[in-house]
Please model this.
Amino acid sequence: MILASQSPRRRELLQDAGFDLEIVPADIDETRLPGEKPIELVLRLATEKAESVRSGLSHVPADGLLVAADTIVWIDDEALGKPTDAQDAARMLRELSGRTHSVSTGVCAMRLDGEANLAARTAFVETTEVTFWDLSDAAIAAYVACGEPLDKAGAYGIQGAGRLLVRGIRGDYSNVVGLPIARLVRELAPLAAGDDLVANAIRIGGAHA
Model:
């Protein structure tokens, strides 16, 4: 499989599900369009990333699969990207404190023929609701000081120390990490030439347990 992303978290989730990966990052303009909703944004960006990588391929992986994704943290229709600095990270965390926000991941998966032409495609958005505890100024300062928020959308990583900020989630945990892997495996099944991807992923996951 070709993964059109440099995210180590997406790479780990796919490898844990048994996929052999080739990383080919996409280079597109990710600017939000006027009036574009967060869910519309992530679906468009995932699709554009997949097409950008597909159009530049000189070869196709053995399974013919290409996957691209884009994740956004949003609240009140405001998209929270990666903070520009520590002060911006603290601002985002104060905004999320004691509230429920959404994490949406757009995914575009393609099956390619031997010449990298599109044979089949699926695209979807998965959204998870995340609720934060009320955060004290001291807790926010300590979390920002650890450095983890600075390269994370929304200024936190649920798979790291940021889990201590989270009171609860409603939906898919792996989606908050960066890829809704259980749904993706099922969406890939019709594209994968009859392979039972769900059964294979369960076998691989059991071997890792």
Observations:
- The chain has a mean pLDDT of 92.
